């Protein structure tokens, strides 16, 4: 497989700073006002980002919803060949996501159907034979990728599976039934482990490759999610992604056939070649970014707790997983800095989505370092938190990084930096006063 082959027709067109053009009503009169978080433009990286840009004018679906469907379906279609070592864990190119949006305005199904239409043209056999729905039990999932039992039963030879659940609230309810093995089997499947159950009619599946996309409304997710489920680790296998209708198109007819065919030709090549890849690694620039910025920001803190921390506990490995899929879809077996930044932005958006979806009780800004600082300032009370104390809190970071973090803190409602005169030169103190209006730092 060639190391580099840029398939995007305009790879440098995407903006890297400023407002995201996908979500800016001032730039596009047909864009409705968005009620939740907005992803960083960096998530629309490379070939998969180029595909989203090409399809965006043809559907009311949220671009970030189309993106995660393409990443999930793409990783599933590629299969179990490519992998990354993260510590001693072998991670496959699998992306699981819960797309969370209002029943009427989320356009969750439109995002999935946009990806499905493209993949039906690019890899029709995969969509016909390897795309399923109706998760009901762990045994049922294993059955879809089961091993054979002698010459008369060859089993399932192609272990790739893309599971699309349009009513994931039903799946959650099934997983909570007494004696259900579904949650445990799902956790094993995300890890790429062999699947099995020990009963009289034992089922076994060797080297399965399963990706899951679920659709659910925010209200239903909040109602059905229980602390035990989050602590058990089932739902931190999913990237929670807030989606909302992003285009008002009453006369929409979908993407022209020619556009779909042109995109499908390139996607077929990318997916076929990616299946031949083995180990995927970070290039030198991406490795440096990972060590110095991404991993410290995502590895968490022992003090992190609460629903958002539980829901996004696998942020660090997910950043590498997503970066691997971005790279494979860019026709390369080396993760570049752009792929890692895109994956990091996607994980940040997932955390911001969780904060928005789970509501004010699950405090969070989407950035664990900013959350840590804001909590420390609130806990300091009227005396405030000094610049020196901030330096001690983040002693492993350099001065420009801390300056950027404190600047973002002061952009939150109620926070301020105040110069205080002491015996020597003035000292900056960070203070928090609860806003009088409806907004607060805890509000997503």
Question: Would you kindly provide a written description of the structure presented here, covering whatever features stand out?
Answer:
By secondary structure, the protein is α/β, with parallel strands linked by helices. It has two domains: 21-358, Rossmann fold; 368-432, Arc Repressor Mutant, subunit A (Orthogonal Bundle), CATH 1.10.10. 43% of the residues lie in helices and 13% in strands. The chain contains 17 helices and 14 strands. It has helices spanning 46-55, 63-78, 108-122, 124-130, 138-144, 168-175, 182-191, 218-224, 227-232, 257-274, 284-298, 307-311, 315-329, 337-358, 368-380, 387-393, 399-410; strands at 83-86, 89-92, 97-100, 131-132, 160-165, 195-197, 203-205, 209-216, 239-242, 281-282, 334-335, 385-386, 415-420, 427-432. A five-stranded parallel β-sheet has the order 4-5-8-3-9. Strand 4, helix 5 and strand 5 (160-165) form a beta-alpha-beta unit. The radius of gyration is 23 Å and the shape is globular. The model is unreliable at 1-18 and 436-444 (pLDDT under 50).
Rg, Å, rounded: 23 Å
Could you say how many structural domains there are in total? 2
Q: How does CATH name the architecture of the largest domain?
A: 3-Layer(aba) Sandwich
Low-confidence parts, pLDDT < 50 over ≥5 residues? 1-18, 436-444
Give the overall shape, derived from the CA principal axes: globular
Calculate the mean pLDDT score and round it: 84
**Helical residue percent?**
40-55%
Query: Number of helical runs?
Result: 17
Percent in strands:
5-15%
Quick one: CATH class of the largest domain?
A: Alpha Beta
Quote the CATH topology of the largest domain.
Rossmann fold
Number of strands: 14
* N-C termini distance: 43 Å
The order of strands across the largest sheet is 4-5-8-3-9
SS content category:
alpha/beta
| Major sheet summary line | 5 strands, parallel
């Amino acid at each position: 497989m060639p190391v580099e082959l840029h398939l995007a027709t305009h790879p440098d067109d995407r903006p890297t700073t400023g407002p995201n053009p996908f979500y800016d009503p001032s730039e596009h009169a047909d864009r409705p006002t968005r009620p939740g978080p907005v992803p960083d433009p960096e998530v629309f990286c490379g070939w998969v980002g180029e595909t989203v840009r090409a399809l965006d004018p043809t559907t009311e679906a949220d671009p970030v919803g189309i993106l995660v469907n393409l990443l999930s379906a793409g990783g599933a279609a590629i299969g179990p060949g490519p992998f990354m070592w993260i510590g001693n864990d072998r991670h496959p190119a699998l992306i699981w996501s819960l797309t969370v949006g209002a029943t009427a305005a989320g356009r969750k199904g439109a995002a999935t159907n946009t990806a499905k239409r493209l993949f039906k043209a690019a890899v029709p056999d995969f969509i016909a034979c390897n795309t399923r729905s109706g998760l009901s039990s762990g045994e049922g999932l294993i059955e879809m990728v089961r091993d054979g039992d002698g010459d008369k039963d060859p089993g399932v030879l192609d272990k790739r599976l893309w599971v699309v659940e349009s009513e994931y609230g039903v799946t959650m309810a099934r997983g909570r039934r007494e004696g259900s093995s579904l949650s445990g089997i799902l956790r094993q499947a995300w890890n790429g482990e062999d699947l099995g159950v020990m009963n009289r009619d034992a089922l076994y599946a060797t080297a399965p490759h399963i990706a899951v996309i679920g659709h659910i409304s925010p209200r239903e997710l909040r109602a059905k999610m229980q602390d035990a489920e989050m602590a058990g680790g089932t739902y931190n296998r999913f990237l929670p992604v807030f989606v909302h209708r992003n285009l008002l198109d009453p006369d929409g007819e979908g993407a022209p056939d020619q556009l779909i065919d042109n995109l499908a030709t390139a996607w077929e090549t990318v997916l076929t070649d990616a299946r031949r890849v083995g180990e995927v690694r970070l290039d030198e620039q991406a490795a440096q970014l990972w060590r110095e910025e991404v991993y410290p920001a995502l590895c968490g803190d022992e003090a992190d707790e609460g629903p958002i921390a539980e829901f996004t506990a696998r942020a660090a490995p997910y950043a590498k997983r997503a970066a691997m899929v971005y790279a494979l879809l860019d026709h390369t077996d080396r993760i570049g800095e752009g792929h890692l930044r895109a994956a990091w932005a996607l994980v940040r958006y997932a955390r911001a989505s969780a904060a928005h979806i789970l509501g004010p009780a699950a405090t969070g800004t989407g950035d664990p370092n900013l959350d840590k600082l804001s909590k420390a300032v609130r806990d300091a009370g009227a005396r405030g938190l000094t610049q020196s104390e901030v330096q001690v809190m983040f002693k492993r970071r350099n001065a420009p990084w801390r300056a950027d973090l404190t600047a973002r803190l002061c952009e939150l409602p109620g926070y301020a930096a105040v110069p205080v005169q002491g015996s020597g030169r003035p000292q900056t103190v960070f203070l928090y006063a609860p806003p009088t209006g409806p907004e607060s730092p805890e509000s997503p």
